[in-house]
Write a structure and sequence with these properties.
By secondary structure, this protein is of the alpha/beta class. It has a domain of about 200 residues: Urocanase like domains (Rossmann fold), CATH 3.40.50. The chain contains 19 helices and 17 strands. The structure holds nicotinamide-adenine-dinucleotide. Nicotinamide-adenine-dinucleotide binds next to helix 4 and strand 7.
Length: about 575
């Protein structure tokens, strides 16, 4: 392996609330932990809090409203110190972002087991959670925040791209060329929308109340333009769509303000969705007629009144979406539970439009496909280019995958020619260089083994971390999102994510997490995650083979059991063993 320099690790220990701390993961091949699995967990925790990655690092908030990486700075320090002290056959237990114990296991077992935000179902309410969180007894882990595998906005980019691409195929002439696509929420995940829409040829108009979020996406090249006046932004977007220009326009306003103006001006978008943090009426969503500073103040002074305003705006928001749908906009929910909030607030037609999973993504889940992601622990972007090239060579006939990988490059010819020094990213990496692409059952294990081989041969300069979102084919129960409208009505059955977590522990993932409330809020989802390290050793190869086969197999099992023909065929074709397979 080629040695690279070790960046100064963490932080300036200025104060306890983290205001003056800057956390960045160490780079390179020198370790401060005794195993690569523990080192990787430590670096990925730190990477989640890198200012380039996290939305609000001082508060340990990574993304998705208040999704945190650790419960407090004290807990963060204790996790790091424990990971550094642990032997290669020990396992750290983390309960809602706080390290609570270390057990002796074995070298093939996970190095960290994480449970975040879980409550017994009867008590699984936002109020109970808020009460415990206020006492410092729990934290909200979101999906990849508390499980240390968030990679910035790119993490959601391909899923968002897949969704809009399928929307183009399903409703238009194959893509979104010349289509006006309106949405809101330009935060950690939602910020992928403008780039994904333009990658599908569409014109994006996206509202956010927080201009810092829009500025950040402009800086990272996820967004092309920013306009402060609502009417000017609408005019510009309509004009660009007419000219069939794939351009994204951010507008600094509340989502309802934008939708109300579209209704008043009788302008109907072709596609309409939303990714504001509606899953969290207190810390995520911002009520109408309120700027972010006012919201910040009212949240602390009168949280109950704030939530009432927030929920009232969500009802208005969904009513406007349904009104535009009735005028012809292809409308879908984008996984933030806004329909449920509006329904709870008294709007009976809130579920008039479908969620994005039943509308566009479920057929992929039936093949065990989902968001496979990886990170170069070297910190060297060249390592990611090397893996990009290897993935293209491994799956030469997958046109969609090829288009996706090449579209991540500003200079795709250099990648195709194998001239890695001439490669340039199309959008900025955030923190450690990373890549995502959707792969299915019997594909993810091949990619993992390929990467392990690259590490072994020194073709990349340090180990590669491989993980995924909890939003995956067999790892989540979320009746308003991933498991909405299941064929057999099992939307709310959450045995599946529990089994998924156990499968990953039994298979030897490097860390495994089991969360509640991610994506859609407390009480609405349970989900599991796994991360595994390719360190180039034969032992890692065995673990990779098991984990990256068995983890996506859960998607096949889940959907075959629910009666999806695609999943049943996939199980038969690719050899997943389903004991009671339908004839
Ligand atoms: P975030 O908190 O980082 O960003 C949310 C953004 O919404 C912020 O920029 C905020 O200023 C803006 N906002 C809030 N209320 C607004 C309003 N009324 N009008 C305009 N802007 C408003 O959250 P995120 O990580 O971007 O996630 C957004 C939502 O999407 C969350 O509910 C999250 O759970 C959900 N989510 C969906 C997926 C998916 O695949 N569909 C994946 C992850 C998260």
């Amino acid at each position: 392996m080629i040695s690279t320099t070790l960046d100064a690790p963490t932080t300036t220990h200025a104060d306890n609330n983290g205001k003056h701390r800057t956390v960045r993961a160490p780079r390179g091949v020198e370790r401060t932990c005794k195993s690569w699995a523990a080192e990787a967990a430590m670096r990925m925790l730190m990477n989640n809090l890198d200012p380039e990655v996290a939305e609000d690092p001082a508060r340990l908030i990574v993304y998705g409203g208040r999704g945190q990486a650790a419960r407090s700075w004290e807990a963060f320090d204790a996790i790091v110190a424990t990971l550094r002290s642990m032997d290669a056959d020990e396992t750290l237990l983390v309960q809602s972002g706080k390290p609570v114990g270390v057990i002796r296991t074995h070298a093939d077992a996970p190095r960290v087991l994480i449970a975040n935000s879980n409550l017994v179902p009867h008590w699984a309410t936002q109020e109970k959670f808020d009460e415990l969180a206020a006492k410092g007894l729990m934290m909200f882990g979101q999906m990849t925040a508390g499980s240390w595998i968030y990679i910035g906005t790119q993490g959601i980019l391909q899923g968002t791209y897949e969704t809009f691409a399928q929307c183009g195929r399903a409703h238009f002439d194959g893509d979104l060329k010349g289509r006006l696509c309106v949405t809101a929420g330009c935060g950690g995940m939602g910020g992928a929308q403008p780039l994904a829409i333009t990658m599908c040829g569409g014109t994006a108009l996206i509202a956010d109340v927080d201009h810092k979020r829009l500025d950040r996406r402009l800086h990272d090249r996820y967004l092309d333009e920013l306009i402060h006046d609502v009417d000017e932004a609408i005019d510009r977007a309509v004009e660009q769509a007419k000219a069939q220009n794939a351009v994204s326009i951010g507008v600094h306003c509340n989502a309802v303000e934008l939708l109300d103006r579209l209704l008043e001006r009788e302008i109907t978008p072709d596609v309409l969705t939303d990714q504001t943090s509606a899953h969290d009426p207190l810390e995520g969503y911002v009520p109408a007629e309120m700027c972010t500073c006012e919201a910040e103040e009212m949240r602390s002074v009168d949280p109950d009144a704030f939530q009432r305003l927030s929920l009232a705006t969500m009802e208005r928001h969904v009513r406007a979406m349904v009104a535009l749908q009735e005028r012809g906009a292809i409308t879908f929910d984008y996984g933030n539970n806004i329909r449920q909030r509006a329904l709870d607030h008294g709007y009976e037609d809130a579920f008039a439009f479908p969620g994005f999973v039943p509308a566009y993504i479920r057929p992929q889940f039936c093949e065990g496909r989902g968001p496979f992601r990886w990170v170069a622990l070297s910190g060297d972007a060249r390592d990611i280019y090397q893996t990009d090239k290897a993935i293209l060579d491994l799956f030469p006939n997958d046109e969609g995958l090829r288009r996706w990988i090449l579209s991540c490059h500003a200079n795709p010819d250099a990648l195709l020619a194998g001239d890695l020094d001439a490669c340039e990213p199309r959008f900025g990496f955030q923190g450690l260089p990373a890549r995502i692409c959707w792969l299915g059952y019997r594909e993810r294990d091949r990619a993992g083994l390929l990467f392990n081989g690259l590490v072994e041969r020194g073709a990349v300069s340090a180990p590669i971390v491989i993980g995924r979102d909890h939003l995956d084919c067999g790892s989540v129960a979320s009746p308003n999102r991933e498991t909405e409208s299941m064929l057999d009505g099992t939307d709310a059955v959450s045995d599946w994510p529990l089994l998924n977590a156990m499968v990953n522990v039994a298979s030897g993932a490097s860390w495994v997490s089991l969360h509640h409330g991610g994506g859609v809020g407390i009480g609405f989802s349970q989900h599991a995650g796994q991360v595994i390290v390719a360190d180039g050793t034969p032992e890692a190869a065995e673990r990779l083979r098991r984990v990256l086969t068995n983890d996506p197999a859960m998607g096949i099992f889940r959907h075959a059991d629910a009666g999806y023909e695609d999943a049943i065929h996939c199980a038969r074709d690719r050899g997943a063993k389903v004991p009671l397979m339908r004839p």
